Amino acid sequence: MSILLIGLYSCSDEENQLIEPNLSKVNFDYSIKNGSLIFPTENDFESAINYLAENNNERFINEDTFTSYLDVNTDTEIDNIFAALISNDQKIIVAGYEFFIDFM
Question: Could you tell me the residue ranges of all domains in the chain?
Fold first, then answer.
């Protein structure tokens, strides 16, 4: 009986490790202003897209100041990677340009 409990405890630890983001893999710059992600260059934006694609759409933002469109609209028909990068109010800033994405 104790072996079974140890086995369950070990699985629980492994599951927790899988969902924790590995922020050391992030190799791009970004900031958050007024709830929107800001990427200083197009390369930073492309690197963020690649990070999400390579890491199963794993969040790289651990801040309460950003809520993505995907966080609020999980049944969206748009690409999940793109939805994870735009704000809930459908904005993103890349290389100094602010974009508003209208899904209607």
Answer: 23-100
